[in-house]
Amino acid sequence: MTFQNFGLIPELLRAVSDSGYTTPSPIQQKSIPIILEQFDVIGLAQTGTGKTAAFTLPLLQLLHASHDPNKTIRQPRGLILAPTRELSAQIGESVREYGRHLSLRSEIIFGGVNINPQIRKLRQGTDIIVATPGRLLDLVTQRVVNLSKVEILVLDEADRMLDMGFIHDIKKILALLPKQRQNLLFSATLSPGIQSLANSILKNHKVVEVAPRNVTTELVNQVVYKVDQKRKRELLSYLIGFNNWQQVLVFTRTKHHANKLCEQLIEDGLPAAALHGNKSQGARTKALEQFKTGKIRVLVATDIAARGLDIEQLPYVVNFELPNVAEDYVHRIGRTGRAGMPGNAVSLVCIDELHLLRDIEKLTKKTIATEILPGYEPDRNVKAQPINMRHNKSRVQRFVPKSSEESTNRTSKYSARSGTSKNKPSVRTKPTHRSTDNRRNVWKADDRKAYRGSV
Ligand code: AMP
After folding, report:
1. Which atom of ligand 1 has the smallest separation from the CA of 339?
2. pLDDT at 168 over 90
3. What is the average per-residue pLDDT within 138-158?
4. How would you list the strands of the sheet with 316-319, edge to edge?
């Protein structure tokens, strides 16, 4: 099977060949023909399977065919909704890459950045919008965007959009679209929520599915290291340094943990950056760019920020903390082992997380090889404690301890998690300078946000 078999126009075949693709991936083989036939589609596929091209190539071909070059004002005829800014930017780049030999215009719209440049560009007219739902609605409210001419709607990573609470925004956007349109819904999982969303928008649709859902790819070598929570950071630095890993994506459960781990890794001499929802868009773009170009070795991310990221030939993913939802493990390790390249997924698992590991093994129907590294043997006296996503109060106090006794006697789980090594004090044990300058307020603000406990 080749891309020529689909009857793609020469401009798209040239773009595909410019991108170096020779054979369509399974999701492309299944989706492209039926999208070109203008069916509604549910595509069940993970990121990393080539699903962006699977919907973008036929979308470009159909919009090119219905493009009227005599129209002076361009209104969006293709709308792609994605859950995160990074994913929108990534899809937007793919739209431009695959459409580089066509005269269609596209714009990428997401929040967290100044709205005015987006307004200016949209006022010049566009054929395709790739957007996160919230910012798109802002622009609709300001009458900068009119969605009444949309011919093709794509909901990408629809399961994640529902998880992130975008259903109300999506419903508002759907109400602004013409009734007659083609709908393409891509999702990694087919939950009851996705099924009901699909039932409400799709007409006479076809289902395409690649790799069975919740299956981890054989290309990713998975290993679990059992280790105490408080030794995780030391073990992570050791693994990166000893094995000379140069590009490692590390996942934590919360934004606060991502910030904290990032600081500690930098202290350990490992160039690192954090990527999560509290970071400005500028900081997120910079962190990703530095990671992709090798300026930093470690990117510490939360699940939401890392969803859908496409980092070419990423060799290592580390679960510093296992996710609470087993499906997220599949997404996390799917960042590596992409496009036919082998990858490695390492999980640092403490006693509190054994039930999460069991859930993951049940979901993926696979037992993950477990190892204990000499020198990092778990302490048998440590008892399992419930996992708390919140940033608890005693931890905030830790930055300005009232007395040394209070800080050493604290037995909360979060204190134990500070990862303080015997030989190397953690950054949190010497925060006194923070209380003398206004950085202290920064920390407090950050702590308050982390207390709300989201990623
Ligand atoms: P996606 O699942 O859309 O995020 O794509 C994952 C990666 O696969 C991206 O780096 C794409 O550039 C790449 N890719 C997409 N289609 C193909 C193909 N047919 N052959 C080789 N690589 C591809």
Report:
1. 8
2. yes
3. 96
4. 272-275, 298-301, 248-251, 316-319, 343-349, 220-226, 369-371
- The domain spans of the chain are 3-209, 220-371
- Among 19, 32, 314, the mutation site with the greatest number of ligand 1 atoms within 8 A of its Cβ is 19
pLDDT (0 to 100) of residue 95: 98
Measured from the CA of 19, which atom of ligand 1 is nearest? 12
pLDDT score for 193: 86
Assess contact for 271 and 298: CB atoms under 8 A: yes
Distance CA 448, CA 443 (A): 9
Whole-angstrom Cα distance, residue 48 to residue 155? Answer: 17
Give residue 211's pLDDT band: very low, low, confident or very high (50, 70, 90). low
- Please give the number of the atom of ligand 1 that sits closest to the Cα of 310: 4
pLDDT at 442 over 90: no
Of 195, 208, 210, nearest to 40 by C-alpha is 208
Query: Beta strand 298-301 with 248-251: parallel, antiparallel or unpaired?
Result: parallel
User: Is 257 a pocket residue for ligand 1 (Cβ < 6 Å)?
Assistant: no
Across the range 127-146, mean pLDDT stands at 96
Q: From atom 14 of ligand 1, which residue's Cα is the shortest distance away?
A: 50
Q: Residue 147: pLDDT above 90? A: yes
- Residue with the nearest Cα to atom 5 of ligand 1? 50
Amino acid occupying residue 253: R
Atom of ligand 1 minimally distant from the CA of 47:
2
The radius of gyration of the chain from alpha carbons, rounded to an integer in Å, stands at 23
Query: Across residues 57-82, what is the average pLDDT?
Result: 92
Residue 165 backbone class (left: φ over 0; alpha: ψ -120 to 50; beta: rest): left
Q: Is the pTM of this model over 0.70?
A: no
Q: What is the mean pLDDT of residues 104-112?
A: 95
Looking at residue 296, its amino acid is I
DSSP 382: P
Q: Is the CB of 264 under 6 A from ligand 1?
A: no
With 50 as the cut, is the pLDDT of residue 267 above it?
yes
Overall fold of domain 3-209: Rossmann fold (3.40.50)
pLDDT value, residue 308: 67
- According to DSSP, residue 378 is labeled P
Residue 453: is its pLDDT beyond 70?
A: no
Burial class (CB in 10 A: 0-12, 13-18, 19+), 290: middle
Same CATH fold, 220-371 and 3-209?
A: yes
Architecture of the structural domain at 220-371: 3-Layer(aba) Sandwich (3.40)
